[in-house]
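Title: Comparing notes on inverse folding

I've been comparing how different people in this forum approach sequence design from structure. To keep things fair, I'm posting one structure and asking everyone to reply with a full sequence. Here's the target:
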């Protein structure tokens, strides 16, 4: 931005094609009448339309709802983002703040949004290089040598990802399991299993591949995933808020190995 002219240009004025509310009359949502043209669209369809500007078909809506249901809705309070929401509940915070905090910490380095965006970016990069004539095995080796990891492969706790089978089953039912990006993920897994790395695919790779095959860009995929953990976060908050205050995973002081300064008298 150079100088105040851009501020004056937008004072009391915002040009947008995203939508507008006309009080007592109608709502425009990305150029379409919400009450007339979009009234039969499921919420997932509306979300995807808001993100991409494209109205998904019924099979795509089922796929993207399935990814949320099968892959990200675990109501286990031990999981890092669910734990934050449960802590909010045990301190009697509000559901809105609990959900906001849980989703905010979902942008983690090992779990959540960052691995997701790295996985789909990796698939786009690899496919582009393959189309330019590169060899896939060499690309995988270079990726490992440079970054020490392959996004979407390997898992910290267990080698098997229990979400792969049910999501792949849904994709097969919808005839989405044979797209070029899905095929690419399994080819990469074969290379990693045959080599010394022994890395199995995790759900980040398969979900990213399915989204890429449906035409989502990396940024669109990220925006679609922003709220996906909410289905598991809210039950953890509700569980904690219904129990005595402050009782969520307490830790007694004698379990803490303190190595700092001795107790001092002021």
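Reply #1:
Here's my take.
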């Amino acid at each position: 931005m150079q100088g105040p002219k851009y501020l004056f240009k937008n004072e009391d004025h915002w040009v947008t094609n995203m939508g507008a509310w006309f009080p007592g009359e109608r709502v425009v949502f990305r150029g379409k009448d919400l009450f007339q043209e979009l009234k039969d669209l499921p919420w997932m369809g509306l979300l995807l339309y808001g993100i991409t500007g494209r109205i998904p078909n019924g099979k795509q809506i089922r796929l993207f709802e399935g990814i949320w249901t099968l892959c990200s809705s675990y109501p286990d309070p031990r999981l890092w983002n669910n734990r934050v929401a449960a802590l909010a509940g045990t301190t009697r915070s509000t559901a809105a703040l609990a959900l906001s905090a849980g989703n905010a910490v979902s942008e983690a380095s090992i779990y959540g949004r960052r691995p997701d965006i790295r996985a789909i970016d990796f698939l786009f990069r690899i496919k582009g290089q393959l189309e330019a004539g590169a060899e896939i095995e060499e690309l995988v080796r270079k990726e490992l040598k440079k970054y020490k990891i392959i996004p979407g492969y390997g898992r910290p706790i267990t080698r098997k990802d229990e979400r792969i089978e049910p999501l792949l089953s849904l994709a097969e039912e919808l005839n989405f399991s044979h797209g070029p990006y899905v095929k690419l993920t399994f080819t990469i897994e074969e290379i990693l299993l045959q080599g010394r790395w022994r890395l199995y695919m995790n759900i980040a790779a398969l979900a990213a591949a399915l989204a890429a095959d449906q035409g989502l860009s990396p940024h669109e995929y990220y925006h679609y995933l922003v709220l996906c953990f909410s289905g598991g976060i809210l039950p953890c908050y509700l569980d904690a808020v219904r129990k005595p205050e402050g009782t969520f995973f307490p830790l007694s002081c004698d379990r803490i190995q303190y190595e700092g300064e001795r107790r001092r008298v002021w």
